[in-house]
Amino acid sequence: MSSASSVSALYGGNAGRRVTVRDIGAAKARHERWPMVTAYDAMTARVFDEAGIPVMLVGDSAAMVVFGYDSTLPVTVDDLISLTAAVVRGSSRAMVVADLPFGSYQASPQQALESATRFMKEAGAHAVKLEGGTRVLPQIETLVSAGIPVMGHLGLTPQSVNVFGGYRVQGRGQSGEELMADAKALEHAGAFSLVLECVPTDLANRVTTALSIPTIGIGAGPGTDAQVLVWQDLMGLTEHPAKFVKKYADLAGEMHRAVRTFADEVVTGAFPTAEHSYS
Ligand code: KIV
């Protein structure tokens, strides 16, 4: 484990049981920073779990990075339940948070409860995430009182891309005060953590200080309690990543090289040899 894990009990610590909402709350009290990544399948979930990632999000970003849509809107509860179940099966320590997709919770608290219950019962999720501020408070209250931990999501909430008119920074100027009020209301409604996406650093810092639940930034600067990235972005699979993405690997280049080598060896007859054949 890297030296960073020695200053972080949540990242890399306590193998042998799942990370819980209590662990996450305690990390905030200790002023401990931690990483979250998205995951959509069992094999990558196992790698991230073994690397000590404490929280994995089965994001509705799956619509784009798994299913190839150009927004998060088309993905369904059924789509994400299969992926969430795979991530739960592939991991043993991380808390697995499932995104409630567009159209699965906005209509009413009852709709939110039915969707979230499916994620908990059918996929084994440990928490759900939903987007929005004041308008989803009744949903959050209903889920929390039913025993379902809820992660909030403010700022650039991609399910509202058509209202925003594109993927743009949110919370500049006066709208920052609205976001701050929403953040406090989400905490009050019982959310255990809050994603802040594409908001100015100053605003994210102010929200992080004002809340007692952890903030998880993506394009929100260095001051949030946690940071999240979509794994295909951080591994270099995404063609045109956003400004907030740091590329930690060139998986696209490595996969291209590997598959070309395989193809060349098939064509030339260099693969398979006796080593990879049965007698
Ligand atoms: O769907 C997703 O991957 C997300 C993260 C970007 C926070 O919501």
UniProtKB/TrEMBL annotation:
**Which controlled-vocabulary keywords does the entry list?**
Cytoplasm, Magnesium, Metal-binding, Methyltransferase, Pantothenate biosynthesis, Transferase
What cofactor is this protein dependent on? Mg(2+)
Q: Which GO terms describe its biological process?
A: methylation; pantothenate biosynthetic process
Q: Where does 3-methyl-2-oxobutanoate bind?
A: D60, S61, D99, K129
Q: Which reaction does it catalyse?
A: (6R)-5,10-methylene-5,6,7,8-tetrahydrofolate + 3-methyl-2-oxobutanoate + H2O = 2-dehydropantoate + (6S)-5,6,7,8-tetrahydrofolate
Question: Does the keyword Metal-binding feature in the UniProt annotation?
Answer: yes
Per the Swiss-Prot or TrEMBL record, the active site comprises E197
> What molecular function terms (GO) are annotated for this protein?
3-methyl-2-oxobutanoate hydroxymethyltransferase activity; magnesium ion binding; methyltransferase activity
Q: Which GO terms describe its cellular component?
A: cytoplasm
Q: Which InterPro entries does the protein's record reference?
A: Pantoate_hydroxy_MeTrfase, Pyrv/PenolPyrv_kinase-like_dom, Pyrv_kinase-like_dom_sf
Q: How is the cofactor bound?
A: Binds 1 Mg(2+) ion per subunit.
Pathway assigned in UniProt? Cofactor biosynthesis; (R)-pantothenate biosynthesis; (R)-pantoate from 3-methyl-2-oxobutanoate: step 1/2
What's the superkingdom here?
Answer: Bacteria
Main subcellular location of this protein, as a coarse class: cytoplasm
Q: Where does Mg(2+) bind?
A: D60, D99, E131
Could you tell me where this protein is found in the cell?
A: Cytoplasm
Q: Provide the E.C. number(s) assigned to this enzyme.
A: 2.1.2.11
Query: What is the annotated quaternary arrangement, including any partners?
Result: Homodecamer; pentamer of dimers.
Q: Which family does it belong to?
A: Belongs to the PanB family.
Q: What does this protein do?
A: Catalyzes the reversible reaction in which hydroxymethyl group from 5,10-methylenetetrahydrofolate is transferred onto alpha-ketoisovalerate to form ketopantoate.
* Full protein name: 3-methyl-2-oxobutanoate hydroxymethyltransferase
Taxonomic source organism: Acrocarpospora pleiomorpha
The organism's taxonomic lineage, starting at the top? Bacteria, Bacillati, Actinomycetota, Actinomycetes, Streptosporangiales
Q: What's the encoding gene here?
A: panB_2
